[in-house]
Design a protein that fits this description.
about 100 residues; alpha+beta; GMP Synthetase, Chain A, domain 3; 3-stranded mixed beta sheet; 3 strands; about 55% helix; about 20% strand
Length: about 100
């Protein structure tokens, strides 16, 4: 018997929405992964070709998340159950 995810993924791909669904999933788990202390200062903006664009409040936070990016990517993928995120890229959020 097929797993439900084995049936849904091809259906989403066929509808052309798999990437957008994955992006929403990443946004949903991003705050959990970075934790309550950092979540108010950053947010997942978009996911394109495995690169997650993360908006940050300042360059110091960008540097901190960059140093911890291997762990963040691993936790995101673990929670998603797939290797959707390969790396993080940062941009400063507008005030």
């Amino acid at each position: 018997m097929d797993r439900l995810s084995d049936l849904i993924d091809p259906a989403l791909r066929g509808l052309g929405v798999r990437g957008r669904v994955r992006e929403v999933q990443v946004r949903d788990v991003f705050n959990e992964v970075v934790g309550p202390a950092l979540a108010p200062m950053c947010r997942a903006i978009s996911l394109e070709h495995g690169v997650l664009l993360v908006g940050v409040a300042n360059t110091s936070l960008s540097h901190q998340l960059h140093l911890d990016s291997v762990r963040v990517v691993a936790l995101l993928n673990e929670r998603l159950g797939t290797s959707a995120v390969r790396r993080l890229r940062f941009t400063t959020l507008e005030a």
